[in-house]
Specification:
single chain; about 240 residues; Hypothetical Protein, Haloacid Dehalogenase-like Hydrolase, Chain: A, domain 2; 2 domains; 4-stranded antiparallel beta sheet
Length: about 240
């Protein structure tokens, strides 16, 4: 299982050639899952075209929207096999809660903006502190210790009954239905494959305490932390080497 942004690809970019070829080789041997806060449409546009055309997509599981959905490839098409969507009332409440929390905390006062502040979908709402089109270096510098987003999350939490606010990426907060997160995706896939989480491996860039990938650790899954596509490619090489030993 792999995280997407800042793991197998730079944020909002396609995977590197080395990573794409590594995933292609992995899919010959074992099921592979990509789990991310990204939408399925972004995976379709940025992730899938980067894979070699002969990749065995029948072994690839896509978990967009922080595992609020899962897609599998069947009969030449991608099919959603589960989905946890918000009601209209829940969506309205989320947006109102963000408006009030931003005003109350002042975390965006004098902050620059690149593009829309929210990516709003029926299964996940993502707040992007500097806008969805912010340059990577500005994202990295804005809230490196998560203090701004923790303040915002603390204001949001009492207003989001039945939902969870999760600090993610470099400027983001993701909202999904309660208990729908990457740990849910790990347990769901383990059950689907008939294995235990301890027999699976998760590769991500943010597995330290409080990191957006750390939620998978209590499932018992093995983990490898990487810092970007270069280290992810090396991790994939190590996994592939284990199959030839």
């Amino acid at each position: 299982m792999f995280d997407l942004d800042n793991t197998i690809a730079e944020s909002f970019q396609p995977p590197t050639h080395d990573v794409a070829n590594g995933l292609y080789e992995l899919l010959k041997r074992v099921p592979v899952a990509i789990m991310s806060g990204a939408s399925f449409s972004r995976m379709e546009k940025g992730l899938l075209p980067a894979l070699p055309k002969k990749a065995d997509l029948s072994r690839l599981y896509l978990f967009p929207d922080t595992a609020a959905q899962c897609y599998v490839y069947e009969n030449g098409k991608w099919r959603s096999i589960y989905k946890f969507a918000f009601t209209k009332e829940e969506y309205t409440n989320i947006m109102q809660a963000f408006k009030e929390a931003i005003e109350k905390t002042g975390v965006l006062q004098d902050a620059p903006r690149w593009g829309e502040l929210f990516l709003a979908r029926d299964v996940q709402v993502t707040f992007a502190g500097l806008g969805v089109d912010a340059p990577p270096d500005m994202k990295a510098a804005w809230d490196p210790n998560r203090a701004k987003r923790k303040k915002l999350k603390d204001s949001l939490d009492p207003k989001l009954s039945g939902m969870i606010a999760r600090i993610s990426g470099r400027t983001a907060i993701d909202i999904t239905a309660k208990e729908i997160d990457k740990a849910h995706g790990v347990k769901w896939l383990a059950n689907r494959l008939g294995v235990e989480p301890r027999d699976m491996l998760f590769v991500g860039d943010d597995l330290s305490q409080g990191g957006n990938d750390a939620v998978v650790i209590p499932t018992g899954i093995q983990t490898v932390e990487v810092k970007g596509p270069h280290e992810a490619a090396a991790a994939i090489d190590n996994i592939l080497a284990s199959y030839s030993n």
